[in-house]
Write a structure and sequence with these properties.
Layout lengths: L9 E7 L4 E6 L3 E4 L7 H4 L10 H9 L6
Parallel strand pairs: 1-3
Antiparallel strand pairs: 1-2
């Protein structure tokens, strides 16, 4: 095997845009991410349905689903 071919693997710090910081292992020392499990709408329960140009209503009319109120 070649020497010094693979990158160094060690401790890394991940920083989210919301301020959450955690450590793990990676080939990079530090990484900045835009969203994490602490602030992602799916995991926080604050997920909203974004309706673009009435597409949700069109889908519900076509397939007979009742609208959310």
């Amino acid at each position: 095997m070649k020497k010094d071919f693979h990158p160094q693997y060690g401790k890394a710090k991940f920083i989210c845009a919301c301020g959450e910081v955690w450590e793990t292992n990676s080939t990079k020392k530090e990484m900045k991410v835009g969203i994490c499990a602490k602030c992602h709408p799916f995991f926080t329960g604050k997920q909203k349905l974004v309706d673009t140009a009435g597409r949700v209503e069109k889908f519900r009319r076509r397939y007979g689903m009742k609208s959310e109120e």
